[in-house]
């Protein structure tokens, strides 16, 4: 049996936490031969801490063979201690009457503190995934607050958008999701993201040619994927949780264990390619091998794609400017 690895999860008593922790403990994220120690963080309020205790009791009651230990805490320095993986799910939700800029500020405070704690106590190889919204900018803040850790260790979750797009394409073409290769989503995890199937193939054939309907792309596909989160809230009365947890599992699984050459989408710090300024946490196609992701390079960007990629970039730049004063 391998040595246990430490997996920190914030917002552990929330909806996504409840769909996520049991799957991590059962081995779905890091493999059925990898024991894990779960280190769970919640806010220091009585209700949240009590709910966290309840989740830990249920984890105990599953008697997962791979669950080698558990820590529950309200202190990031405890939850992130020696963490090999950190899934930052907890964030301040948008309350009634709250402006987007207020939401940014409140979350900037949380992710500054958590970035510093990761910097101080986590493993130097920690793989960080930010799920809590605004995910890209929160990941950017955490990265900037952790100057002693490599920037490449910080990522944001675009995988739910990626999976949503795959599913829409499978339904449109009548093919299986698993057969769709080389699709990606560019930019911010927000309705501005750009899901791009120009390069996608099914058994070597072009998905774009198969669909052959640019109007469907612009008026159905992009709005459906972009506004899917809102559609779920309207239907369920609650935001996406199981699908978000599933996407987080996919993201970390692939980063740790590899994609065998398949493209997946990750929000990663830009290296300046594709006209995206360096450092911006931007969704791009990557492949993963040996615990590292590699950006897919050299894709052609046509005029429509450029426009869409710049649109989502501008939103990210605005968010970055909105929190710049907290990072200097
Ligand atoms: P919940 O409100 O159910 O749970 C969030 C939990 O985080 C709460 O228990 C809260 O006490 C805790 N929390 C808040 N601040 C914390 C802090 N500083 N440290 C530790 N814990 C803290 O929300 P849930 O539905 O689980 O969603 C969590 C986040 O994921 C939200 O920000 C949400 O917007 C975001 N999402 C991101 C997605 C993505 O694709 N990137 C998709 C799904 C989801 O909307």
UniProtKB/TrEMBL annotation:
Binding site for substrate: 94, 100, 133, 164
EC number, as in UniProt: 1.1.1.37
Source organism, top-level taxon: Bacteria
Amino-acid positions noted as binding NAD(+) in the UniProt annotation, renumbered to this chain: 11-17, 107, 114, 131-133
Domain Lactate/malate dehydrogenase C-terminal, chain residue ranges per copy: 159-322
SUPFAM superfamilies in UniProt: LDH C-terminal domain-like, NAD(P)-binding Rossmann-fold domains
Keyword Disulfide bond: no
Record keywords, A-Z: NAD, Oxidoreductase, Tricarboxylic acid cycle
CDD domains: MDH_chloroplast-like
InterPro entries, A to Z: L-lactate/malate_DH, Lactate/malate_DH_C, Lactate/malate_DH_N, Lactate_DH/Glyco_Ohase_4_C, Malate_DH_type2, NAD(P)-bd_dom_sf
GO molecular function: L-malate dehydrogenase (NAD+) activity
Active site, UniProt feature: 189 (proton acceptor)
Single Gene Ontology BP annotation: malate metabolic process
Keyword NAD: yes
Gene3D superfamilies: Lactate dehydrogenase/glycoside hydrolase, family 4, C-terminal, NAD(P)-binding Rossmann-like Domain
Catalytic activity: (S)-malate + NAD(+) = oxaloacetate + NADH + H(+)
Ranges where the Lactate/malate dehydrogenase N-terminal domain occurs: 5-154
Function statement: Catalyzes the reversible oxidation of malate to oxaloacetate.
Family the UniProt entry places it in: Belongs to the LDH/MDH superfamily. MDH type 2 family.
NCBIfam families: MalateDH-SF1, PRK05442.1
Protein name: Malate dehydrogenase
Organism this protein belongs to: Paraperlucidibaca baekdonensis
Chain's gene name: mdh
């Amino acid at each position: 049996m391998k040595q246990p690895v430490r997996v920190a999860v914030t917002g552990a008593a929330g909806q996504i936490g409840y769909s996520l922790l049991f799957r991590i403990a059962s081995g779905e994220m890091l493999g059925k031969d990898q024991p894990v120690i779960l280190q769970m963080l919640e806010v220091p309020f009585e209700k949240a801490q009590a709910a966290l205790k309840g989740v830990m009791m249920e984890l105990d009651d599953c008697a997962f063979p791979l669950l080698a230990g558990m820590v529950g805490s309200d202190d990031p320095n405890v939850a992130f201690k020696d963490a090999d993986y950190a899934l930052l799910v907890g964030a301040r939700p948008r309350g009634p009457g709250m402006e987007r800029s207020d939401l940014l500020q409140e979350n900037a405070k949380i992710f500054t503190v958590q970035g510093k704690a990761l910097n101080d106590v986590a493993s130097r190889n920690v793989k960080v995934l930010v799920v809590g919204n605004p995910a890209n900018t929160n990941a950017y803040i955490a990265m900037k607050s952790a100057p002693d850790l490599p920037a490449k260790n910080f990522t944001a979750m675009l995988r739910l958008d990626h999976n949503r797009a795959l599913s829409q394409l499978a339904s449109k073409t009548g093919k299986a999701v698993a057969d769709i290769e080389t699709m990606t989503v560019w930019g911010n995890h927000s309705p501005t993201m750009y899901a791009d199937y120009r390069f996608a193939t099914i058994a070597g054939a072009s998905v774009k040619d198969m669909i052959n309907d640019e109007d469907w792309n612009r008026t159905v596909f992009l709005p459906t994927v972009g506004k899917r989160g809102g559609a779920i809230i309207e239907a369920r009365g609650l935001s996406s949780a199981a699908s978000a947890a599933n996407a987080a599992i996919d993201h970390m699984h692939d980063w740790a264990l590899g994609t065998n050459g398949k493209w997946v989408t990750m929000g990663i710090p830009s290296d300046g390619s594709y006209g995206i300024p360096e450092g911006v946490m931007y969704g791009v196609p990557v492949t993963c091998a040996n615990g590292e992701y590699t950006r897919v390079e050299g894709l052609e960007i046509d005029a429509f794609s450029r426009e869409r990629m710049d649109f989502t970039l501008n939103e990210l730049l605005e968010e970055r400017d909105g929190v710049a004063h907290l990072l200097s």
